[in-house]
Amino acid sequence: MIRVTIFNEFLHEKYDGEAKRLYPEGIHAHIQSFLKSEQDLTVYTVTLDDPECGLTEEVLENTDVLLWWGHMGHHLVPDEVVERVWRRVLDGMGFIPLHSGHHSKVFRRLMGTTCNLHWRENDRERIWTVSPGHPIAAGIPAYFELEHEEMYGEPFAIPEPDEVIFLGWFAGGEAFRAGVTFRRENGRIFYFQPGHEDYPSFHNDHVQRIIKNAIRWAYNPVRYRIPCPWAPSPEQGH
Fold first, then answer.
1. Given Cys at both, which of 64, 73, 75, 213 links 3, Cβ 3.0 to 4.6 Å?
2. What is the distance between the alpha carbons of residues 149 and 201, in angstroms, rounded to a whole number?
3. Which long-range contacts (CB under 8 A, 24 or more apart) does 229-237 make?
4. What H or E segment, with its residue span, contains residue 41?
5. What is the pLDDT of residues 196-234, one digit of tens each?
6. CA–CA gap between residue 157 and residue 139 (Å, rounded)
7. Model confidence over 157-166: pLDDT tens digits?
């Protein structure tokens, strides 16, 4: 079984009428609902309301892949929690930041950059599958469309990705690297752009399939913390 934890700051759904209508129990609960049917996944959710944002040492020790949705509350995540998650990713925990998770403290720490971009609300997006042979793209057509989504535009201030799986094109003319992968030590990272709180992107079958595929790709059954000890020469005495 792959142990999945979903972190959602759970703020918009309390105060934003449209977000509450689309995700009445929270974005985390909605994502959990479409992952629950997968026989190889166990899914747990946490929010900012939980002690230590729910991301305690025990929770992270029992998490194989962490999904992250945040937007207006990035600054509310304590630095000690960020440090804890960052270390776990380096040890081998998969990490999937969604939508505005690009500005989360954890993702910025892992990237070492601002992760800034251009943005505009309410645009039509066509998502192109540019690496159709990648496991994250399994079962995804050459392209699909989201009638309403927040435009994210280049330049996207991230390091060069290991792989670009999806490219977003917007009706306003912008293009964006909408699905990209990175490896940091033993951890696999997939950033996926769709998922604005006021639009039904997480209700889309293709978006849901991509998230399921990404969880399985990011899963690493091996946890290993790379040490930094002094080491004698193995040739000594020979």
1. 64
2. 7
3. none
4. strand 41-47
5. 999 999 999 999 999 999 999 999 999 999 999 998 888
6. 29
7. 999 999 999 9
27-35 helix and 205-218 helix, angle to the nearest 10 degrees = 80
Nearest to 95, CA basis, from 149, 55, 133: 55
DSSP-assigned beta bridge partners for residue 12: none
Report CA 136 to chain centroid distance, whole Å.
Answer: 13
Which residues, listed in sequence order, are joined to residue 218 by a DSSP beta bridge?
none
| CA dihedral over 102, 107, 108, 110, signed as positive or negative | negative
Cα(158)–Cα(102) distance, integer angstroms: 9
pTM attached to this predicted model: 0.96
Please state, rounded to an integer, the average pLDDT across all residues of the chain: 97
Distance CA 151, CA 127 (A): 12
Q: Which pLDDT score is estimated for 26?
A: 97
DSSP 3-state of 56: coil
In DSSP terms, which residues pair with 8 in a beta bridge?
47, 69
Cβ-based neighbours of 131, under 8 Å, separated by 6 or more: 137, 163, 164, 165, 166
Tokens 């729910």 belong to which residue? 54
For strand 2-8 and strand 65-69, is the pairing parallel, antiparallel, or unpaired?
parallel
Task: Name which of 87, 179, 92, 189 is nearest 127 in CA terms.
Answer: 179
DSSP 136: G
Rounded alpha-carbon distances, angstroms, from residue 105 to 73, 114, 125, 135: 10, 10, 27, 27
CA distance 141 to 129: 7
Residue 47: strand, helix, or coil? strand
Taking only the tens place, the pLDDT of each residue in 138-159 is 999 999 999 999 999 999 999 9
